[in-house]
Amino acid sequence: MNEQQRLDNQRVNSPDKKSAKDYSKYFEAVYIPPSLKDAKKRGKEEVKYHNDFSIQKEFLGMGTGRKFYIRTYGCQMNEHDTEVMAGIFLGLGYEVTDQAEDANVILLNTCAIRENAENKVFGEIGHLKALKREKPDLLIGVCGCMSQEESVVNKILEKHHHIDMIFGTHNIHRLPNILHEAYMSKEMVIEVWSKEGDVIENLPKVRRGNIKAWVNIMYGCDKFCTYCIVPYTRGKERSRRPDDIIQEVRHLAAQGYQEITLLGQNVNAYGKDFDDIQYGLGDLMDEIRKIDIPRVRFTTSHPRDFDDHLIEVLAKGGNLMDHIHLPVQSGSTDVLKIMARKYTREQYLELVRKIKAAIPNVSLTTDIIVGYPNETEEQFEETLSLYREVGYETAYTFIYSPREGTPAAKMTDNVPMAVKKERLQRLNAVVNELSAAAMKKYQDQIVDVLVEGESKNNPDMLAGYTSKSRLVNFKGPKTAIGKIVKVKITDAKTWSLNGEIVEELQQVEVN
Ligand code: SF4
C-alpha cells in the first residue's frame, strides 16, 4: 500500500465509524493486503528524507495512566525498531512494563526469517487471547516483518480477531495515529505499506542499556537471495545521509557509550543509492574511526559488495574491531548460483584472502544454510571444505526453511529432511571443532573485555565480550561494568572463556 492508498483507505475506514466487526469488507474494498509482488517492484524514485517527525498535539497524553509492553523477535534491526517504538510510546505519555499482564498495549515485533520464528509468534498470539478476554480494553498489535506478508495478515484477519492492530516495518513512525485509530475503532487497524522509499530521521529512541548502541545506516535490501523474505518485508535499499549517522555516533560517544554497531540488512551496499555523492561503507567507517568511541562494529555484510576500500580502512584498526561476520551460506558455486548470492566459492575465498592479508589477526564468522533444495552430497562437502579452508571461529548454521513468496519456496526439493538433519550435524561437528581450537588460543592470554553486566548464570561473576566478540565470564568488581578491562583467560571452553581481572579498578560503586 502506498501513501495515496492509505489516504483513500482512511477516508473509507474512518476511525469514528464504530461499526460491528465485519472482516469480509477488508478483502472487498477497504483493506489492500501487503503484496510481495508490489514489494518487489523497485522504482527509481528518489529517497525522501524527513526530519519533521513530531507527536501531534492531539495525541500528547494518550498514554497517561497506561503502560506498554513490546516483545521482540529476530534480529538487531527489530531490536532497534523496538527502541524507536518505545521512544514514541514514552513521547505519548505511556510507561513501560516488562509484564505483559500489566500492559494496556502489547506489541509483538515479529520476525519472518524462518518458519519456526513465525510459529512462535502465532503461539503467542493464541496465548494472548485469554488476556484480551480478561481485559477487553487491552490493545494488542502485531508489527515487524511478519506483518509485511500477505499470508500472515490474512491469517490474523481470519482467525485472530482479538488482534487490534497490524502495522508494517515502513509504518513505525505512524504508531501514534495507529494507536489513536485502534482506540477509536472497533475494527482491526491495518497499516502496511508494501513499498516505501523514505528515511525518517528524527524518530525518538529509548536505547536498551548505556554501554552498547545500534545505529541504523541503511534500510532494506535489493539482493533478493532466492531463500530470503527480507527484500520484500523491508523494502528497497536506502541509505541514511553520512552527516546524520556521524552526528548520531558523536552524540552516543558524548553520552559515554563504549560500543556501536552499524546496522543494515546489507551494510556493504551503503551509499550505492546516493545520486549526488560517491560515498560507501569504507568512507563512513573512515570517518567514524576518528570519533572517540572505543569499539565500532557493523553487521550484516554481503560478500559481493565488500570492497577493497573498506578492507583498507578496517586494516587501520583502532576502534574498528578485528571481527568480521561474513555470511557465505554455501561453499558450492552451483548452490550459491541457485541462491542468487552473486559470488562464487572462488570469489569468496579471494575476498577472505584479501581480508586476512590486510588484517592478519582478523576473526571471521559466518552463516550457513544446509539442505538447500536439491543440494547434493558433493555440494555439501564443498561447504565443509570451505569452512575448514577459511578457518571460521564460529558460525550460525541452519537447515533451509522455505518462506512463502520467495523463489526457493517454489523449487522442488529432493533432499529428505533426515539427510538435511544429518548434514547439519556433520557441519556442526566441524563448527564445534574449529571453535574449540580457536578458543584454546586464548588460554593464558590477556584480552580486553567490555564488561556488560553480571554473568547470566552466576551473579557473582561478570560477563563481557572481547574485541572478537567472544564471551568472557570472570570475577571482578561491579565497578568494572561499562568499562573495558584486561582479563587473563584461565579456562577456554568451546563457546565461552573464563578468566580473572588483571587490573586495579577504582572501587567506586556504579549506580
Ligand atoms: S543479502 Fe541478506 S537480507 Fe538481502 S536478500 Fe540476501 S540474505 Fe536476505
UniProtKB/TrEMBL annotation:
Keyword Mitochondrion: no
Class of the enzyme per the UniProt entry, highest EC level: transferase
Ranges for domain Radical SAM core: 207-437
Cofactor(s) it depends on: [4Fe-4S] cluster
Chief site of localization: cytoplasm
Domain MTTase N-terminal: 66-184
GO molecular function terms listed in the Swiss-Prot or TrEMBL record: 4 iron, 4 sulfur cluster binding; metal ion binding; tRNA-2-methylthio-N(6)-dimethylallyladenosine(37) synthase activity
Record InterPro entries: Elp3/MiaA/NifB-like_rSAM, Methylthiotransferase, Methylthiotransferase_CS, Methylthiotransferase_N, Methylthiotransferase_N_sf, MiaB_methiolase, rSAM, rSAM_horseshoe
Reaction catalysis annotation: N(6)-dimethylallyladenosine(37) in tRNA + (sulfur carrier)-SH + AH2 + 2 S-adenosyl-L-methionine = 2-methylsulfanyl-N(6)-dimethylallyladenosine(37) in tRNA + (sulfur carrier)-H + 5'-deoxyadenosine + L-methionine + A + S-adenosyl-L-homocysteine + 2 H(+)
Transmembrane domains' residue ranges: none
Keywords: 4Fe-4S, Cytoplasm, Iron, Iron-sulfur, Metal-binding, S-adenosyl-L-methionine, Transferase, tRNA processing
Binding site for [4Fe-4S] cluster 1: 75, 111, 145
Enzyme nomenclature, EC number: 2.8.4.3
Residue numbers binding [4Fe-4S] cluster 2: 221, 225, 228
Residue span(s) of domain TRAM: 440-503
GO cellular component, one term: cytosol
Region of interest (Disordered), ranges: 1-20
A Pfam match: UPF0004
Localization: Cytoplasm
Cofactor binding note: Binds 2 [4Fe-4S] clusters. One cluster is coordinated with 3 cysteines and an exchangeable S-adenosyl-L-methionine.
HAMAP family: tRNA_metthiotr_MiaB (MF_01864)
Function: Catalyzes the methylthiolation of N6-(dimethylallyl)adenosine (i(6)A), leading to the formation of 2-methylthio-N6-(dimethylallyl)adenosine (ms(2)i(6)A) at position 37 in tRNAs that read codons beginning with uridine.
PANTHER family, sorted: CDK5 REGULATORY SUBUNIT-ASSOCIATED PROTEIN 1 (PTHR43020), MITOCHONDRIAL TRNA METHYLTHIOTRANSFERASE CDK5RAP1 (PTHR43020:SF2)
Recorded family membership: Belongs to the methylthiotransferase family. MiaB subfamily.
Subunit structure, interactors included: Monomer.
Name listed for the protein in its UniProt record: tRNA-2-methylthio-N(6)-dimethylallyladenosine synthase
Native organism: Bacillus canaveralius
